[in-house]
Fold:
Amino acid sequence: YYTSFQLSEKSDVYSFGIVLLEVVTGQPPILPESVHIVQWARQRLAKGDIESVVDDNMRGRYDLNSVWKVADLALRCTEQAASQRPTMADVVVQLKESLELEEGSERVHGSYTGSGDADEYAESSDAASQSTQSGRVLDLVSGPAAR
Structure:
């Protein structure tokens, strides 16, 4: 939108990429140092430094591969050229794959193997598994019809 001044599905993808970065990092879109979240994350991830990007509030309670996948997806969503961004259908597929990695990690490692409060994690994990067991999966709708 910034360069074309026209809303499109690809501008929605960009915006969703910003939201993904905010979720992963816990940071606002414009950081206090007047740095855009995309620049900030891209610089760190280019060095392979995922742990400095992930929100400290997650306290290590995540599957590293899952978080890498989401962070990489967010960067692809925020590519400068709209033609280089994935479709929202691709985004949904990638997010579901990331969720499967996360759930697989929980099954393999039991409750969790990170720092932080295990009881707190067990409570949030129980809530997540209850919503998964109910068979409800969030389907994302994009484009002008979703507005």
